[in-house]
Design brief:
The chain is built from 17 helices and nine strands. With about 325 residues, it is α/β, with parallel strands linked by helices. The protein has two domains: about 180 residues, NAD(P)-binding Rossmann-like Domain (Rossmann fold); about 130 residues, no CATH class. A nine-stranded mixed beta sheet has the order 1-9-8-7-6-5-2-3-4. β2, α1 and β3 form a beta-alpha-beta unit. α1 packs parallel to α6, α1 packs across α7 and α11 crosses α17. The mean pLDDT is about 95. The structure holds NADPH dihydro-nicotinamide-adenine-dinucleotide phosphate and magnesium ion (MG) (2 copies). One magnesium ion binds next to α9. NADPH dihydro-nicotinamide-adenine-dinucleotide phosphate (NDP) binds next to α1 and β7. Pathway: Amino-acid biosynthesis; L-valine biosynthesis; L-valine from pyruvate: step 2/4; Amino-acid biosynthesis; L-isoleucine biosynthesis; L-isoleucine from 2-oxobutanoate: step 2/4.
């Protein structure tokens, strides 16, 4: 079983006399910076002066400076800008100030794991990652609790890198819910696999294939949308709160029997073979390489796929129905 750290297992000793620079003030940056500041830690925020975040962070009461100044001043540099822009910003504005004994910290292992950021040998490399979007990280903290999180140490130069990561996790409120110790490799590879196979890739293709099957068979697109997409939330909420077993107990016996007897015809041996291949591409770096080249080329494939996805009938039908349900305005 994994190791889980709670509030009582962690102190602020390794971080309380250090300056923590949060680089970026988006979804995670804002939430994590505010939580750590409210926990009494010394937080500064590093941003580009021309960006929209600059004034937002000042308004929230932070000490704001350029990325370079923040990287120079801080003992811990916590990088929370989008993963694709991290390597360039790191190289130009952070690396020159990453002197011996400092800690470079992330909320996702991608750039370190795939070697797109290569810090010098004499610094700590750590991860503190909330298992939830920034807005939830802030909201649950203000309510007196926190979302669960992960910590990992890729390199422990000073001997207390794990205590530093855990101190930050405590400051963000993650140890209130529980923090799991993992590795950069495990976090990165499972994250990519989950989003490709289930959360983003698998689920959308399942919905679209089922929607198209009904529409092609002559059923009303509105009915198809309700049954193959809209109602998914009810099932996912049940699974989220009560697990797979709890979901089965809450649907009709007909749904349970039909689901249990038919599901392996949809997700079959071939699907599992594809999952294994996708995992292999993540593990051997082929996916990361492809994604880097795609970005270098200006994301032509991504843009084409985005266009196709937007033009699908399910988007038109969905927009109308969500308006009808009061879920979406104009
Ligand atoms: P965002 O897309 O919300 O980050 C936007 C922020 O980055 C803005 O403050 C923006 O400032 C700043 N920024 C962008 N480019 C630059 C630049 N060139 N120089 C300086 N600042 C810049 O990122 P997220 O919060 O979504 O993700 C941050 C990290 O957290 C990633 O590693 C991600 O994988 C990880 N993570 C994210 C989760 C999430 O729920 N979103 C969950 C768990 C981990 P400006 O206003 O100037 O554009
Ligand atoms: Mg991800
Ligand atoms: Mg039904």
């Amino acid at each position: 079983m994994v190791k889980i750290f709670y509030d009582k297992d962690v102190t602020f000793d390794a971080v309380k006399d250090k300056t923590i620079a949060v680089i970026g003030y988006g979804s995670q940056g804002r939430a994590q910076a505010l939580n750590m500041k409210d926990s009494g830690l010394n937080v500064i925020v590093g941003l580009r002066p021309e960006g929209a975040s600059w004034n937002k962070a000042i308004k929230d009461g932070h000490t704001v400076m350029t990325v370079e100044e923040a990287a120079e001043k801080a003992d811990i540099i916590h990088i929370l800008i989008p993963d694709e822009v991290q390597p360039a910003v790191y190289k130009k504005q952070i690396e020159p100030h990453l002197t011996e004994g400092k800690t470079i910290s992330f909320s996702h292992g991608y750039n370190i794991h795939y070697g797109l950021i290569k810090p010098p040998e004499n610094v700590n490399i750590t991860m503190v990652a909330p298992k939830g979007p920034g807005a939830m990280v802030r909201k649950t903290f203000e309510e007196g609790f926190g979302v669960p999180g992960l910590v990992a140490v890729e390199r422990d130069y000073t001997g207390d890198a794990l205590q530093i990561a855990l101190g930050m996790a405590k400051g963000i409120g993650l140890t209130r819910a529980g923090v799991i110790e993992t590795t950069f490799r495990e976090e990165t590879e499972t994250d990519l696999f989950g989003e490709q196979v289930v959360l983003c890739g698998g689920v959308t293709e399942l919905i679209k294939a089922a929607f198209e099957t009904l529409v092609e068979a002559g059923y009303a697109p509105e009915m198809a949308y309700f049954e193959t997409c809209h109602e998914l939330k009810l099932i996912v909420d049940l699974i989220y709160q009560k697990g797979l077993q709890g979901m089965w107990e809450n649907v009709s016996n007909t749904a349970e029997y039909g689901g249990l007897t038919r599901r392996k015809r949809v997700i079959n041996e071939e699907s599992r073979k594809a999952m294994k291949e996708i995992l292999k591409e993540i593990q051997d770096g082929r996916f990361a390489k492809e994604w880097s080249l795609e970005n270098v080329a200006g994301a032509p494939q991504l843009n084409a796929l985005r266009r196709l996805e937007k033009e699908h009938l399910i988007e038109k039908v969905g927009k109308e129905l969500r308006k009808m349900c009061g879920l979406e305005k104009e």
